[in-house]
Amino acid sequence: MKKLTFCALVAVLAFSSCKEENKVPATTPLALGDFELSTDKITQNEPFTITYNGDAEQMESFYHQINQLKAYPYDINFTNKEATITVPDSISAVAFNFTVDGKYDDNNKKGYVLKVHDADGNVVKGSNTSVAFYPSSYGRQFGLEADKAAIAEAMEADLTASPELKEAWGNGYINTMFRNDKAKGKALVEAKIEELKGKASLTEEDYGLLSSFYGMMKKRDLADSIRTVAIEKFPEGKMKASSLMNSFFEAKDFADKEKIFNDIKAMDSENSNLGFFTNNLASASYKAKDMKSFDKYVAMMDKPMDKASLYNSMAWPLAEEGKDLDFAAKISKSSLDLLKQAENALDDKPQYLTPNQYKKNIKSSYNMYADTYALILFKQGKVKEAIDHQKIAIGEGKDPELNERYIQFLLEDKQYQAVSDKANAFLNDGKGTKKMTEYYKTAFAEVNKDGDFDAVIADIEKKAHEKELADLKKSMLNEEAPAFALKNMDGEEVTLASLKGKTVILDFWATWCGPCKASFPGMQKVVEKYKDNENVVLLFVDTMEDGADREKKVADFISKNKYDFNVIFDTKNKETEEFDIASSYDVSGIPTKVIIGPDGKMNFKVVGFSGQNEKMMQEIDLMIGLLNP
After folding, report:
1. Closest by CA position to 155, among listed 138, 140, 175
2. Are 181 and 149 contacting, i.e. CB atoms less than 8 angstroms apart?
3. Which residues, other chains included, contact 221 with Cβ-Cβ below 8 Å and sequence gap of 6+?
4. pLDDT by residue (tens digit) across 382-435?
5. What is the dihedral of CA 96, 99, 104, 106, to 10 degrees?
6. Whose CA is closest to 28, among 42, 14, 45, 18?
7. Is there a contact between 390 and 371 (Cβ–Cβ < 8 Å)?
8. What is the rounded distance in angstroms from the CA atom of residue 463 to the CA atom of residue 484?
9. Contact 428/399 with Cβ under 8 angstroms?
């Protein structure tokens, strides 16, 4: 991509102090990475073309239409590498999101966010704010970085030019300013509190705002007392219903849960959590073997995806244990039928997903649930049917565990040639397991009686190793690792500066995080392997965890499981309520592993856990090897 001049770049990507004339010169094509817009001036209700100039086999694109502080996703559907888009007259900015060959183009964490113009060629009111605000909200999930000062500056400039925006932004203006300019935001909150206190009579919504504002100011006691008053004044209101939610989750007895649910439903029939409560009650009644209540609450579930998820969560444990297989098969098959219904029920699509993304989620769920059904069929002795469904489950063959079951089923059906061919392909692609290698060996002996299996496997492992190394090299980062100084369980301070020259692995986790804990048996083996290597340091960063007993809870967990982990405690910013180190490393979900090289650069960042400790350990070994040749 050619470099743009400073002011031109800012006009495309973010708000800046460069003054921009209301009238913009005639349009010219605009390059956005491997994509090109037919215009550098997006105008409401005027179609424009976006062209993909790359040659990648896989490319996915969508964009957000931004209406002031809110963004709505839309697919970009290409035909012969071209797509035509029209932005309606309610939109103030657009943000393009491109993924090519599985890699998202974040444009150096700035994204591609553009202002929108009206029919007269003027920049739409609020565009500066929309462009500056997007990276801090919707853009965060794509790794974009926001400029707090720019957001506050943009809001003030837009309000000066168009005071009516204050009403359009509503309390979003106060909340946004509070997060991005603490002094000015605090003044706005205090003024709003005084305004509400001065009203002769407060509505339930007013009480809710007042409580929220006191909470923002860290005046918890006042916030709680306001909520108590509101609940007394509006005993059947939404705040009362909201207060019952915690009671629902804390209730141990099914009858208590059921009563609380009915109370919430009566007070707030539009409560967005009702579907979750219904799901919870259906699951609880199933566990209690109360099938009458189970059928009752399942009947209340009106979204096929929710019901399918419930059925699969019930069927999978039965499939693993080989229990009650007829019932398991019935509900598992129903989960697949429900997902087929969901494909034609786009009205249930969450607002934050495009239709294509929603359909992709349905397909992913279908593959996962097909895996459940296939295992049930296999344990029922219906091997050929199991193979048919497992073939669907493996999809593109990216999940080694699903691939392993497919090979297992084929071997059980004595399809030795198919086992040999497919296992070879999976293993060559690095998507196999040790168990799959054993299955392959059995089949190989049947179809290649004079073949040298050890030589074949050695060649596969060499190629797989080389491929994985190549993929890791492509994913390598070269970002300065943020400094930290945190206390460990012994009260000793651990600093990144003191570890310069070493490879440092940060494993962000919490005691409440299931996937984190599932990965720990493997991480313990990693710790044991490198305990005598003075050039490798593993630190387990406890984060996103609250409570006065936090340190004791963590210490008890580590001790109980006999993990030899050096745990350090992330600190929490009292003003933003964000965890400092997780925030500085842009960790939005856990588990996340960050690998820092000897030069102090963050070289790898791995989010999530695949469920395969063996694979995780191998990947960590390769990353350490790359950084310590």
Report:
1. 175
2. yes
3. none
4. 999 999 999 999 999 989 999 999 999 999 999 999 999 999 999 988 889 889
5. -20
6. 42
7. yes
8. 39
9. no
Tokens (6 digits) for 241: 């219903």
What is the model's pLDDT at position 470? 86
pLDDT in tens, 371-393: 999 999 999 999 999 999 999 99
Tokens of 411: 């071997």
User: How would you class 269 by CB atoms within 10 Å of its CB: exposed for 0-12, middle for 13-18, buried for 19 or more?
Assistant: exposed
368: left (phi over 0), alpha (psi -120 to 50) or beta: alpha
pLDDT above 90 as % of the chain? 70
Q: What's the number of CA atoms in the CB half-sphere (13 Å) around residue 61?
A: 25
pLDDT at 268 over 90: no
Q: What is the DSSP-derived secondary structure letter of residue 604?
A: E
**CA–CA distance, 94 with 72 (Å, rounded to integer):** 9
Within 10 angstroms of residue 474's Cβ, the number of other Cβ atoms is 9
Nearest to 309 by CA among 340, 332, 281: 332
What are the pLDDT digits (tens) for 500-558?
999 999 999 999 999 999 999 999 999 999 999 999 999 999 999 988 889 999 999 99
Confirm if 148 and 31 have CB atoms less than 8 A apart: no
Contacts by residues 615-620 (CB-CB < 8 Å, ≥ 24 positions apart): 615/400, 616/519, 616/522, 616/523, 617/522, 617/525, 617/526, 618/468, 619/468, 619/472, 620/505, 620/526, 620/593, 620/595
Three-state DSSP class for 33?
coil
d(CA 534, CA 540): 17
Closest CA to 137 of 44, 68, 218, 217: 68
The distance in angstroms from the start CA to the end CA of the chain is: 33
Q: Are 418 and 403 in contact (CB under 8 A)?
A: no
Question: Pick from 545, 546, 547, 564: which is nearest to 489 by CA?
Answer: 564
The pair of structure tokens assigned to 253 is 């007895």
Compute, in degrees rounded to 10, the torsion defined by CA atoms 524, 528, 531, 532.
-170
Task: Transcribe 490-552 into DSSP letters.
Answer: TS-EEESGGGTTSEEEEEEE-TT-HHHHHHHHHHHHHHHHHTT-TTEEEEEEE-S--STTHHH
Return d(Cα 206, Cα 306) in angstroms, integer. Answer: 34
**Distance (Å) of CA 628 to CA 469, 531, 561:** 14, 16, 31
Count CA atoms closer than 13 A to 621's CA, side-chain side.
Answer: 13
Q: Which two tokens stand for residue 70?
A: 């809110």
Structure token pair of residue 53? 């100039």
Q: What residues pair up with 43 in beta bridges, in sequence order?
A: 117
Cα separation, 300 vs 282, whole angstroms: 9
Could you tell me the pTM of the whole model? Answer: 0.81
